[in-house]
Amino acid sequence: xxxxxxxxxxxxxxxxxxxxxxxxxxxxxxxxxxxxxxxxxxxxxxxxxxxxxxxxxxxxxxxxxxxxxxxxxxxxxxxxxxxxxxxxxxxxxxxxxxxxxxxxxxxxxxxxxxxxxxxxxxxxxxxxxxxxxxxxxxxxxxxxxxxxxxxxxxxxxxxxxxxxxxxxxxxxxxxxxxxxxxxxxxxxxxxxxxxxxxxxxxxxxxxxxxxxxxxxxxxxxxxxxxx
Length: 227
What we know:
This protein is mainly alpha-helical and 227 residues long. The chain has one domain. It contains 9 helices and no strands. α1 runs antiparallel to α8 (185-204) and α3 (49-58) packs across α7. It is globular, with a radius of gyration of 20 Å. The protein starts with a helix and ends with a helix. The relative contact order is 0.18.
């Protein structure tokens, strides 16, 4: 039942991602993207830029991949490999879609990477922006952390704090990419939906506590000496 539920979540999310991507390709959200970018530029103070720049660095492929390996370290080897395949495979899909959809990122006037001493590597916008890889990685790792925390401790203060930190971190990364002028809102939404569809498959492969206990008990019985 649990597996069917999460696979349903995954399937529905992926269908939603495909449909949303189609709408983005039709350029139906351009005005909305622009309006949101203007509001962010006018209302988010520049003093927060260092925080968002740090969040962007934390959301890099290298750092999130290391965190992911730590989170799934105790999973069975088969599940680890599937998780990593979905994680890196989805990012391969991300790069493919960027080249196919060719949605340019926010123009120069929305970018806030420049300082008086150096040009940030993202100052000159290169390539295309949909979907957001930072958004995908942030949601992917945050959902797994929240799931494992609740699975281990239930709905307790500890799991709530851990889940809250993970959610806040993901939100900061995603908002930061818009504040710094690296992504449109649609880029962030697309990456998030893609992450949900992949995480649903990963969670469906994780046995429930009862199933895990039954497997462990069965293995111990098989290992016990015959009388």
